[in-house]
């Protein structure tokens, strides 16, 4: 009975918080908690003028007492928005709305209304020397469907995989683990284009997956499918990673100076003024595709002969190890 009462009271205490977050997400398509324990929230507040031109203002709010009590809250606005308010003589308007707002959602709505009234009828604002206010058209938000697709994909792969997201949505970084627990990063650039670019520290490239939505012909980047491809590639390359790890851990690697999984070649020290260059095939890392000895012929001749005598036990022929 006590447990039931405790659960009921806990759920009741969460209802106001969930209501605030729900109203907040209706105002801002992308509004995320940056630090849950410190109650720091950030996102882009959409701004629509009478001319139906859409812009965005980045807003960060730190609420020490939580989103239901804005006492001692700190607010950070985009510089262009602060300059705009200053030019309109409304420097203290945001602070006044913060003091009278009952919760975070109400405050964000007040800020949105304030900025929309400031730029209403002024879709193109002339820049002023030393106190510039950007043209609203330069702050265009992505298609609303972009937010829905991106949030759904992040939910599918797990928000914990998100490492970084640019404020202009031009690039993002996610991470994944291979079978052995190594962490690999995937950087996606030009998110808003129909052909985003994937940057990975791997010996083979990764192409981004883009799909058209069912309700229109627009093509959007599919993070979930691209991430699945990335995960499959990592699993396939796990033996390759293990071979390179062994070289880096148990040999003296001369080149590359800072070994990564991008370079499938290792030059290792055999003896003073003697070295060996080994090319590892990412597809079949246990087969020696190319081995080259470097040093004076007098010093390396014996090493090379002994190596070729034993190539049969390594699963390759002298022709392979050349």
List the topology elements.
Layout: H1 2-27, E1 31-35, E2 40-48, E3 54-62, E4 74-77, H2 79-87, H3 93-100, H4 104-119, H5 144-157, E5 162-165, E6 171-177, E7 183-189, E8 197-200, E9 210-212, E10 219-221, H6 223-236, H7 238-250, E11 253-255, E12 265-271, E13 274-280, E14 288-294, H8 297-309
Antiparallel strand pairs: 1-2, 2-3, 3-4, 5-6, 6-7, 7-8, 9-10, 11-12, 12-13, 13-14
Q: Would you give an account of this structure?
A:
Helix 1 packs parallel to helix 4, helix 3 (93-100) runs antiparallel to helix 4 (104-119) and helix 5 runs parallel beside helix 6. The chain has a four-stranded antiparallel beta sheet with strand order 1-2-3-4. It has helices at residues 2-27, 79-87, 93-100, 104-119, 144-157, 223-236, 238-250, 297-309; strands spanning 31-35, 40-48, 54-62, 74-77, 162-165, 171-177, 183-189, 197-200, 210-212, 219-221, 253-255, 265-271, 274-280, 288-294. It is built from eight helices and 14 strands. The longest helix has 26 residues, at 2-27. The protein is elongated and about 85 Å long. By secondary structure, it is α+β, with helices and mostly antiparallel strands. The model is unreliable at 1-12, 121-139 and 313-322 (pLDDT under 50). The protein has three domains: 2-139, Ubiquitin Conjugating Enzyme; 145-236, Ubiquitin Conjugating Enzyme, CATH 3.10.110.10; 246-314, RWD domain-like (Ubiquitin Conjugating Enzyme).
Brief overview:
The protein has 322 residues and is of the alpha+beta class.
């Amino acid at each position: 009975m006590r447990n039931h009462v405790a659960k009921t009271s806990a759920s009741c205490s969460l209802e106001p918080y969930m209501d605030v977050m729900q109203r907040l997400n209706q105002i801002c398509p992308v509004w995320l908690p940056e630090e849950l324990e410190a109650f720091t929230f950030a996102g882009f507040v959409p701004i629509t003028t009478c001319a139906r031109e859409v812009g965005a203002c980045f807003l960060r709010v730190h609420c020490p007492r939580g989103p239901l009590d804005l006492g001692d809250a700190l607010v950070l606005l985009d510089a262009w928005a602060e300059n705009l308010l200053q030019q309109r003589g409304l420097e203290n308007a945001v602070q006044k709305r913060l003091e009278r707002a009952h919760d975070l959602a109400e405050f964000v709505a007040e800020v949105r209304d304030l900025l929309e009234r400031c730029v209403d009828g002024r879709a193109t604002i002339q820049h002023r020397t030393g106190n510039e206010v950007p043209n609203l058209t330069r702050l265009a938000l992505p298609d609303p469907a972009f937010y829905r697709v991106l949030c759904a994909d992040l939910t599918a792969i797990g928000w914990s995989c998100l490492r970084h997201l640019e404020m202009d949505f031009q690039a993002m970084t996610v991470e994944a683990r291979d079978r052995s627990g190594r962490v690999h990063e995937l950087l996606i650039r030009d998110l808003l284009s129909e052909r985003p670019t994937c940057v990975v520290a791997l010996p083979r490239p990764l192409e981004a997956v883009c799909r058209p939505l069912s309700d229109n012909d627009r093509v959007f980047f599919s993070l979930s499918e691209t991430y699945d491809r990335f995960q499959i590639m990592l699993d396939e390359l796990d033996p390759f990673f293990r071979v390179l790890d062994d070289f880096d851990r148990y040999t003296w690697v001369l080149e590359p100076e800072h070994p990564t999984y991008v370079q499938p070649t290792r030059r290792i020290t055999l003896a003073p003024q003697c070295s060996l260059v080994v090319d590892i095939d990412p597809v079949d890392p246990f087969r020696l595709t190319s081995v080259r000895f470097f040093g004076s012929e007098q010093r390396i001749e014996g090493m090379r002969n002994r190596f070729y005598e034993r190539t049969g036990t390594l699963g390759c022929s002298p022709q392979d190890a050349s």
